[in-house]
Amino acid sequence: MAVSNGNSVMSKGNFGEVRLEGVTKIYEKEGVSHPVLQDCMLHIPKGKLTVLMGPSGCGKTVLVNLIAGYERPTSGRVLIDDTGVAGPGPDRLVVFQETALFPWMTVYSNVVFGCSVQGTPKKAIKEKAELILKKVGLYEFRDKYPSQLSGGMQRRAELARAMINDPKIMILDEPFRGLDAMTRQLMQEFYVGLFEEVGRTNLFITHEIDEAIFLADRLIIMTYQPGRVKAEIEIDLPRPREFHLLASPRFMEIREQAIDLLYEEAAKAFSSGSKAAYDLVGALVAQKGACKPTCTPR
Amino acid sequence: MTTHDKIEGAISIRKVTKIYDPEGARVMAMKDCSFEMGAGEFTIIVGPSGCGKTTLLNAIAGFDTITSGEILLDGDTISSSLKQIKPNVDRMVVFQNGALFPWKTVIENITYGPVVQDRMKKSAAAELAKGMLHQVGLGEIGDKYPEELSSGVQRRVEILRALINQPKVVMLDEPFRGLDAVAKTVMHEFLMEVFCASPRTMFFITHDLDEAIFLGHKVVIMTTRPAQVKKIVPVALPWPREHHIMNSREYLELKQEVLEAVHEEAKKAFEAGERELA
After folding, report:
1. What pLDDT does A7 receive?
2. CB-closest option in A243, A249, A282 to B189
3. A198 forms bridges with which residues in the sheet?
4. B183-187 — which CB contacts under 8 Å span 24+ positions?
């Protein structure tokens, strides 16, 4: 359970929930239709951290675009708190993979940019921004430019910039991609701490299985083309999450279960000719007994 | 590949210090770093980014010099402040993705080294390469070009390209970086198989602690720069290993131990980095 305490920077309680009801998204290319999502049913509950995983090409990014309102479904409905999504809105904020900070603005100006253009009073912005900058450990660095920061700091500035708007839903599309493994681990701990404090509705997309399990309340695994929900795993690891959990029996158990599910989807991707899934050829051959297997993922 | 009667390739790293001095900046990458790798031992190196792991690999491979200390291979000095033995096929480095010749087939890539160096006849090398590919379930890909293969298969070909030279020491610098958990599982299976078929000294750098414990005879944890050995964790799990050992109590205890030490150093490195920027 996400615990909130009295020192929280952000207002609490005004969190959203997302529902996808029978969502299909079809792209037309040279007269051929490609269903990217088909009949996708998905529930992202209020105040929880939901993590989405799936093989490349399962429609994760399309799903983000639909919830953010950048795209419309071909059929079916995307609902935020029972209201259909008509377009982008300040209630949903997306933190993207690559840093999207304005390089010509200081950290402070980047963080307050959204609020300023929306006309929030200057004094209120300043107070809130300073609190959030302290929270993400960038207060000392508020007058620096993004290029003067490390990768981990840039990602924290991104988080601060999203959080200051108090979105009902935060969508993070592989936000820690490109960081080295150690910084990534530290960023995960940092991010999960923020989440546990505020308890906002978070949708987090990742390729990293350990990251997924470490962060999630619920882990959703998507099928390979067309994308729909293959499995949902309740992650019942205790909160607050801290790094020791990575070596706990329950963590490893969930990890094995998730790898099995992902393996099934990767195998499907392989048989449909995806080059990325060609990596599995060794395992498939081994399973057929063409060479002596020492171990197989399943 | 046949098993050697006597496995060679013991490496001694003795009080190795390396100072880079670009424009008088004097960056100390390694300081008095010492440890041993037994012949045929699978040694894993973990540590914070930029701690000097690759510096050590370059020194063993003969790509770079050291400032003081000594590195020995089977008792002979291969690197010290006084001498530096050049890179040789007895110490092979498997590079990160992308070092295959795109205009050559898989077989031509694997056999390129021994053939141009006149250590093997072209036809004999090709036969050997075919056998190696077949043994690891990749018998079909010999005539394909690298771009036709996924990155995971390319990486396996790169490892075979090193192994055809029968090196005493194989060095790998985060060879599976960027692969997902499923693809990594396949790679571990592959490496376990080639290692068991022909054990040799392995020097393997990674950030993935599961990979480290699953593959290693021992895990050497390095400190934040300058690199020193923080801790050596022996991994006494039976060989060949299967992935379900990851659920065993022994495994989890080892992981806890490694995790703790690595996390401490990562934090130190991170905080030092922030101080530098402030």
Report:
1. 42
2. A282
3. none
4. B183/A266, B183/A279, B183/A280, B183/B152, B184/B208, B184/B211, B185/A259, B185/A263, B185/A283, B185/A297, B185/B243, B186/A279, B186/A280, B186/A282, B186/A283, B186/A297, B186/B152, B187/A279, B187/B152, B187/B155, B187/B156
Of A256, A266, A282, the CB nearest to B190: A282
Helix-then-strand count for chain A, H and E: 8, 10
| CATH superfamily, with its number, for domain A1-91+168-250 | P-loop containing nucleotide triphosphate hydrolases (3.40.50.300)
B247 contacts in chain A (CB < 8 Å): 249, 252-253, 256
Contact call for A297 and B196, based on CB within 8 A: no
The continuous run of DSSP H or E covering A277 comes out as none
> Could you give the residue range(s) of every CATH 3.40.50.300 domain in chain A?
1-91+168-250
Nearest to B136 among A144, A183, A291 (CB): A291
User: Which percentage of chain B shows pLDDT scores above 90?
Assistant: 59
Bridge partners, A95 (sequence order): A172
Instruction: Report the range out of A56-65, B65-74, B79-88, B237-246 with the highest average pLDDT.
Output: B65-74
Residue of B nearest to A261 (CA): B182
Q: DSSP string of B81-107?
A: SS-BPPP-TTEEEEPSS--S-TTS-HH
Q: Where are the alpha helices (DSSP H) in B92-224?
A: 106-116, 122-135, 151-163, 181-197, 209-215
The reply to whether residue B270 touches residue A182, judged by beta carbons under 8 angstroms, is yes
Residue of B nearest to A152 (CA): B270
The DSSP 8-state label assigned to residue A30 in this structure reads T
> At which residue do the structure tokens 């890909």 appear?
B141
**Which tokens belong to A70?**
């950048």
pLDDT in tens, A129-150: 998 898 888 898 999 999 888 8
ipTM: 0.77
Q: Give A115 or A246, the one with higher predicted confidence.
A: A246
Q: Which of A152, A181, A293 sits opposite B270 (nearest CB)?
A: A152
B225 CA to centre of own chain: 20
- Of the candidates A99, A96, A129, A124, the residue with the CA atom closest to the CA atom of residue A112: A129
Which domains occur in chain B, in start order? 11-90+167-277 (3.40.50.300), 97-166 (no CATH)
Q: Which amino acid is at B12?
A: S
The alpha-carbon gap from A285 to the nearest alpha carbon of chain B, in Å, equals 6
3 state DSSP class of B202: strand
Mutation test of the interface with chain B: which of A184, A279, A292, A298, choosing the one with the most B Cβ atoms within 10 A?
A: A279
Cα–Cα distance measured from residue B216 to residue A296, given in angstroms and rounded to the nearest whole number: 18
